[in-house]
Structure formats: C-alpha cells, structure tokens
Amino acid sequence: MAQTARALDVRTEFAADVFAGLSKSGQKELPSKYLYDDIGSALFEVITLLPEYGLCRAEERLFERHATELVARLPGAVVVAELGSGTGKKTRRVLEALGRRQTTSYYPIDVSPAALLRCEREFSGLPSVKLAGLVSPYLDGLREVARRRPAGAPLLVLFMGSTIGNLERPVMEDFLRDVREQLAPGDGFLLSADLEKPVSQLLAAYDDSIGVTAAFNLNLLERINRELGGSFDVSRFRHEARWNDRERRIEMHLSSTCEQNVHIRRAGISAEFRTGETIWTECSHRFNCAEVVRLGQRSGFRCDTQWVDSEWPFAQSLLIAN
Ligand SMILES: C[S@@+](CC[C@H](N)C(=O)[O-])C[C@H]1O[C@@H](n2cnc3c(N)ncnc32)[C@H](O)[C@@H]1O
Q1: Confidence class of residue 27 from pLDDT cuts 50, 70 and 90?
Q2: If you measure from the C-alpha of residue 163 to the centroid of ligand 1, how many angstroms do you get, rounded to a whole number?
Q3: What's the gap in Å between 82 CA and the centre of ligand 1?
Q4: At residue 77, does pLDDT exceed 90?
Q5: How many percent of the chain have pLDDT more than 90?
Q6: Contact yes or no for 303/296 (Cβ under 8 A)
C-alpha cells in the first residue's frame, strides 16, 4: 500500500518535472535523476564496463589500494550511508574492510528501486553487513539515516562515481551544506570527483562506440512514453555529448532530427521541436583537487586525506565534519 502511494507520488512529480522542463522558452531540459528507471539503471551498469568510461575502474583501483587505510582513519563502529549507491558494487571493498573489525549497518540510498534490489543481492552473502536500502532522493534518505543512527555511532557518508558532478556548480556547495547538517562533528564524508583530462577522452566516455550511452540517454524518452503516455518517436532524436568549456562539464543532450510535435498525455503538454533543438538531460562537471578541498571547507568540513588515481585522473577526498 505504502509502495503504491510512493509510486504514484513519483509519477506525479515526474509529470510535473517533464511539464516544467519541456515548456521552458529557452533550452528544454529534463532532470538527470529520471535517466535511472529499471532499464536506465541496467544500462548504466553496462556503461561502467565500457573501455571508454574510465571513472568506475579508477575508483575501484583507489579502493583496492586504500580501502584499508580509509577504514583505519575512521573511529569505532561506523554506520555507512551511500548517496546514489546504484548497485553498490564498488562499496563492497569498504564494507569488507569494515567487516574485519565490526558488523556494519549500511544504508544505500537511491531513487532507482531496481538498482537497490541489485545492491541487496550484492551484499546478501556478506554476514558483517546489515543492509537497509532506502528508495529516496539523497537528502530525504540521509535525514532518515540520521534519525535511525544509534546515539553516539559515527556516520560515514559515501558519495561516489563523481555523482556530485551531476549537480550544477552553484548548487554543489548548498548540497554539501545540507549533507553536513545531517552529520555530527567527526563524521566522515567520502566525496569522489572526476578530474580534468583531455576533452577527446571525455567526449568518448559519454558517446561510446557501441552506443550504450546513447541508449541510456534515449531511454528517457521511452520512459516518458511508458509512464506518462508520451508520443516520442525515439528514432527522430539522437544522443549528443558536448563539452562546455566555460563550465568545465560534459553535457548530454537529445537532439531533434526534424521539426516535430510531441504530446505527453499525463504531463498535459504538447511540446514543439525545431530541427536541431535539444533537450538537456545531464551535466557531468570536472574538477581539480584543490577545488574539491575548498568546496568541502566552505561547507563545514576539513579534508583529512585525498587519494588520486593517476591512470584516469580521479580523486577521492575523505572530508571530516567540523
Ligand atoms: C552516476 S550513478 C552512480 C552510481 C554509483 N554510485 C557509482 O559510483 O557507480 C548515480 C546514481 O544515483 C542515483 N540518483 C540519481 N539522482 C538521484 C537523486 N536525486 N536521489 C537519489 N539517487 C539518485 C541513480 O539512480 C544512480 O544509481
């Protein structure tokens, strides 16, 4: 019953966001969180395996080298919360390292029920992990974890995969402050960020040769058709990855290949597209190490340690709440 009510809420919010994003007079846009329905989450898993997409392997290498050190830097029996956990595949090393000294309560938080289901399977054979998944937006989920944490138990929040880069720059600091508000002094926040690298490498990472990222992006239009009664003809849109030099980010767009009109019944909108007009669906910012430290400092943290992968420049920063 509660599940059905939540699904209805999600659909109502989806319809409202689609209406707002497609009725904009300038650049049309859709929030990137809607890329992750069951199909989108499965496609994202494939993206993490692509030769062009080095982020995930870089983070795995960092955990291979430093998970034990990370755990040694944390106090006693920590509770772990992960924002946008996906399947939690990479988190395994951290939880295994923690498991050598304690049983760990692990709260993966994600808007995708399918990803959380896979996450539960991933950890079902690990007796040192007590998992409680939360299908929820990041901050609502974190508030719930803060309510549930036993008094005095330190918290470690993970925000991996450079997912911070999906937020617009002015919003990042506010977001980190909101995270900090849910923490107690001394709690840890592991923040990962993909670092600047040649643009050609980044464009390939978001427009791979076999078209998985294109399918991931186009699936959003199919999701609108499935869930909101949309009339998108997906063959009339194409995936586009662009580098925005001023903002230092990759942008994913869906570009209309002709003049067309699309009706979305449950969102109550008819959207017109000119040839070449795009819907902006995701941004993925790039960072340098110093700005991640500054971002943490401005949001109420100090940076304890930063680990950097040199093969695919990528940083994990262990921030501690002041
Ligand atoms: C880029 S993927 C990263 C997945 C995983 N952390 C990793 O490092 O591979 C982003 C994840 O965050 C989830 N997500 C996106 N927006 C969200 C939001 N607003 N609240 C909660 N989860 C969200 C997606 O469903 C997806 O699993």
Answers
A1: very high
A2: 7
A3: 10
A4: no
A5: 95
A6: yes
Write the CA distances from 155 to 16, 74, 186, 210, integer angstroms: 35, 9, 9, 41
CA distances in angstroms from 234 to 119, 140, 220, listed in the order given: 30, 33, 10
Burial class (CB in 10 A: 0-12, 13-18, 19+), 14: buried
Q: Are 186 and 320 in contact (CB under 8 A)?
A: yes
Distances (CA, A) of 39 to 158, 251, 283, 299: 24, 21, 20, 35
Tell which atom from ligand 1 comes closest to the C-alpha of 110.
22
Count Cβ neighbours within 10 Å for each residue of 270-296 and write b for 16 or more, e otherwise.
Answer: ebebeeebbbbbbbbbbbebebbbebb
R_g (Cα) of the chain, nearest Å: 20
Measured from the CB, is residue 63 less than 6 Å from ligand 1? no
| Dist. CA 6 → ligand 1 center (Å) | 19
Is the CB–ligand 1 distance for residue 161 below 6 Å? yes
pLDDT tens digits, 127-155: 999 999 999 999 999 999 999 999 999 99
Does residue 276 come out as left (phi exceeding 0), alpha (psi in the -120 to 50 range) or beta? left
CATH code assigned to 55-196+287-321: 3.40.50.150
Q: Is 33 in the pocket of ligand 1 (CB under 6 A)?
A: yes
Our answer on whether the CB atom of 156 is closer than 6 Å to any ligand 1 atom is no
Cα angle value 260/25/29 (rounded, 5°):
75
What is the residue-averaged pLDDT of the chain? 96
Which of 51-65, 68-82, 230-244, 251-265 has the lowest average pLDDT? 68-82
Q: So where are the chain's domains?
A: 2-30+200-285, 55-196+287-321
Which contiguous run of DSSP H or E holds residue 245? none
Does ligand 1 have an atom closer than 6 angstroms to the CB of 115?
Answer: yes
User: What is the position in ligand 1's atom list of the atom closest to the CA of 141?
Assistant: 21
